[in-house]
Amino acid sequence: MDDRDFIEQMGAAFLAHRFKRASEALVDDIGALLRQRGLAIPGRGASTVLLLHREGPMGITEIAQRLRLSHPLIVRMTGQLVEAGLATTSSDPRDMRRSIVALTSSGHAQAASLEACNDDIERAMSEVFDEIDLDMLTGLTKLESALLARPISQRVLDESRTETMP
């Protein structure tokens, strides 16, 4: 059996796969850290909790838009937060189809503790970036902007058009 990392060998074409692996590893590790610190916030729910803590109750669609995550993911995350006693959902009196998510008092208390934990995570991530000699946040911001301006699919299409021109 070959122990080499197949996806790593595939190069830049599989960058999204490697980002997802790294992201999942980070989220799982940070989730474990949060549990060690006595927080009931799921690692994948931290951004939702902080958004609701800082900006107040809002609808599922608005949360998804603000975090730039999928609606189904936010629905699942909200369910986990409700199950953990950190949030409640209620129907919007102006539009009964719309669910409003709000933190409970426990959710707000946990969010305050999460803010302090984030400072420690920020320092640890900064140490990693120094260790690998890469300003990952700036690079990622530039990558997101470049892909938003001109997605990979468009770049490949443009290149294939150039190659077929006489």
Automatic annotation (TrEMBL):
Give an example GO biological process.
Answer: response to stress
InterPro entries reported for this sequence: HTH_MarR-typ, MarR/SlyA-like, WH-like_DNA-bd_sf, WH_DNA-bd_sf
Highest taxon of the source?
Answer: Bacteria
One annotated GO molecular function? DNA-binding transcription factor activity
Q: Where is the HTH marR-type domain?
A: 12-149
Kindly provide the name given to this protein in its UniProt entry: MarR family transcriptional regulator
Q: Which organism is it from?
A: Sphingomonas cavernae
